[in-house]
Known about the structure:
By secondary structure, the protein is an alpha/beta fold.
Amino acid sequence: MFTIGERSYARAVVDGAGPVLHSAPMELPARTGVVLFLAGLGSTKEKLAASKRTQIFEEHGYACVLADHYNEGERRDCSSELSNRAGWALSQKQHFWPVIHRTAATVPRLVDFALLTFGTAGRVLPIYAYGSSMGGDIFLASIVSERRLRAIVCERSTPDWLRPGSTANVLGESAAGDELYQLHAPCNRLSSYVEHPTRILFILAESDTHVPRACAEGFIGRLRERGVPADRLASVVLRSAGWEGHILRDAEEATNQALQWFAGAHEDGEPPPPPAAVAAPAAAVISAKPTAPTTPGVEPMLLSAQPTALVDDNFMSSEIELHLIREELAEAHRDLERTRRRMYHEAEARRAVEQAKHAFAALAPPPPPPLEAAPPAFEAEHSRKKKVDAANILSTLFACG
């Protein structure tokens, strides 16, 4: 159980997608649908649970399923020394793109879980998805093969992983990353989005130079040319602020836009029930493998210029925010300690190499002293004798002849 104030989420493990937090199952007529949530780089499902956004969705009758990216939070790969944020800062091609692809491949497992948890034989609730930044990149890539999502919202996300025009790219070099981009980046899979059953909304930040809005707008334009209508694929531009213009000034407005988009998607199926009057009650663990409450791993902020997930969420209560900041500082301290130990061992190795060089040099025999040059008088006498000897030899030869 994960409790924040009066709100509680149940914990469960989804095979292939790791631990999740989810709303409590309620009487189905009181539910409008189920929304899958993925946060941005460096954030976790616990931060999503602490945000006002999930609270608003629950107040409108939606059940929420909150998950982590691969190598993030409780899905952190402890065998890897690099966090997702650290990998992003070194080479997006080598580290960041594979995480997008790997997490996108687990979205169908989250859909299965939502249907199992909140569906019945008599009624199947529509499933939606909301992804912020990297989370939106993941959901957009996932629907190439996952077609059961009624609608998705991609907030400050891009169909082009290269992000042309971005002022904060660290692409790096990776042949495997280049191949992944060609095969799986949404901008290279346009035909997969034509006549797609999932409605897509891009929420773009007006002055975003980290994820330029032109990427999504160009993607929409190319699909418009292929006949995708505005009620299936659209974008809305909201005011931006903060680091590289990548933060929304009014995150609640983005939530309202998403609610309207999901409500419009109901026209494709059964009409939604009236919104729930109150937020969901405390959750109970359902038919899934439960996990004991654990403190989520939060990746350190390696670059001070990068936006933190706390700012990105925009909705934290001060008490929860303070707790999460402490968790981030603790993880950052551990990361710095690992770096310090690695640098120490590297310095020790260099020192050992230098000592070995000096030891071998001490064992080697000293070089012979350089030959002294002969004095000029000796050289002159030696030359005169050679000439006399040559003259004597010639005289002897003539006498014999």
